Amino acid sequence: MTHSFRAALAATVVVYSLTLSAQAHAQAFYLQEQSARAAGRAFSGEVADTGAASLWWNPAAIADTNEREVTISAAAILPRGRVVDQGTLIRRPGQPFAPVGGDGVSRNPINNGVLPSGAIALPLTNRIAVGLAVTSPYSFTTDYDDDSWARYSADRTKLRTIDIQPSLGIALTDWLRVGGAVNVEYTDASLSNKLPNLSAALHDGEQRLAGDGWDLGWTAGVQLHHQWAIVGIAYKSAIEHHLKGELETSGLAGPLAASNRTVSDARASFYTPAQIIVGGRFRASDALTLNTQVVRYTWSKFDAIRLGAPINTAIPENYRDSWSLAGGVDYAVSPAVTLRAGVQHAITPTRNGDRDARVPDSDRWNYGAGATFKLTSGLSIDAAANYVDFKDATIDRITAAYAGTAVQTPIVTDGSLKDAHAVVLSLGARLTF
Predict the structure, then answer these.
(1) CA 191 – CA 18 distance, rounded (Å)
(2) Backbone dihedral region of 28: left (phi > 0), alpha (psi from -120 to 50 degrees) or beta?
(3) d(CA 197, CA 402)
(4) Which CATH number do you get for residue 176?
(5) How many folded domains does the chain comprise?
């Protein structure tokens, strides 16, 4: 088997493995559940709120902190849905198109998970504060059965990120607050998919990839304070992620058997998007606050997965820029109890014609309700529940195993995402001292 053929095989496998996306709850593979307080109003006013709980969205949120504050949250994410084959075909070399075979309905391929987060804010003076937020903005696990119809583009994917955000907030005047932060992000991925042998009578081969890496981004924000309103604007930079790890190919037979090997220095890079966040909180009465927030995501940065030596190629992903819009309310029933509710609508960055089973993403509505219970002068408990309803969508990305070689094997995907939804239960605590 020639070197170019082996390289093409490896490239095909890495393409399948490194599509680091899945149905989530904000945009594509971004998880926004970084605060139980925020979840209660469907993430509708975070860029304009104050305190450590809003640090992920806007470092200016801690500029007026006059007490030390610690907040922790955890969100249990419970997704449900079906990924259904509607006639996917495969054409092996020298053979006509044939059904891909396997189980035609994959139920609940995205695993349940718990997403933790936390932040701390410390005042240095009455106008300057430092803070630290630790979050996991891109984390999920998908697990398709070995005989799923989607096995050639998605088998098992496990992605974990840890974002460490040291921040500085400054109150320049009584009405103007600014903030800046560095995002130090660790990414760890373990990914696999099946590979078709040249004969349908043979068991599938398999590709497994494990890799990790550290990367940097930044966040900047501003808040404008008025007696009855706060307006916040923030920018979170795109981050270019670099993964280095091991790529293992096994189970290939016949002419493909020479490609069973382990590459100990596999590399890939891709971008996660920038976010432009604009929002406001408006005090309608002593008890009622109205919230709104718009986020623009530059998902077009995720245009390709770039593979390093010895493959040296780029695989198009063709994501588009997208947005979310949210509105919500806070209502102080008493000094000890605040109720919240909100709704958010988000547009998927995936496109028809480019969506595969590893990325069963679609437009969605997020409905949230929650409350804060002030137990003591310094301790509050936040609780929230969200229901996320995903629109049915096509899964229709055409791929090819061993592309560009004599044994190129096209896979014409024809499937759909159906009846997808998620329940998210969040609980958090805030302590000032």
Answers:
(1) 7
(2) left
(3) 11
(4) 2.40.160.60
(5) 1
The per-residue pLDDT for 344 is 98
| Helix H or strand E segment including 152 | none
pLDDT digits 0-9 by tens, 126-166: 999 999 999 999 888 889 999 999 999 888 888 889 999 99
Q: What is the pLDDT of residue 24?
A: 46
Answer for the pair 359, 83: CB distance below 8 angstroms, yes or no: no
d(CA 243, CA 163): 16
pTM: 0.91
CA-CA distance, 201 to 257, in Å (whole number)? 15
Q: Which amino acid is at 108?
A: N
Q: Strand runs (DSSP E) across 226-348, as ranges?
A: 229-236, 239-250, 261-272, 275-283, 288-297, 304-307, 313-316, 322-334, 337-346
Helix (H) or strand (E) holding 13: helix 3-17
Which residues constitute the domain of residue 279?
Answer: 3-432
Position 426 confidence tier, pLDDT thresholds 50, 70, 90 = very high
For residue 14, what are its two tokens?
A: 């890495």
Q: What residues form DSSP beta bridges with 357?
A: none
Q: Which two tokens stand for residue 338?
A: 């605040």
pLDDT for 61-108, tens place per residue? 999 899 999 999 999 999 999 999 999 999 999 999 999 999 999 999
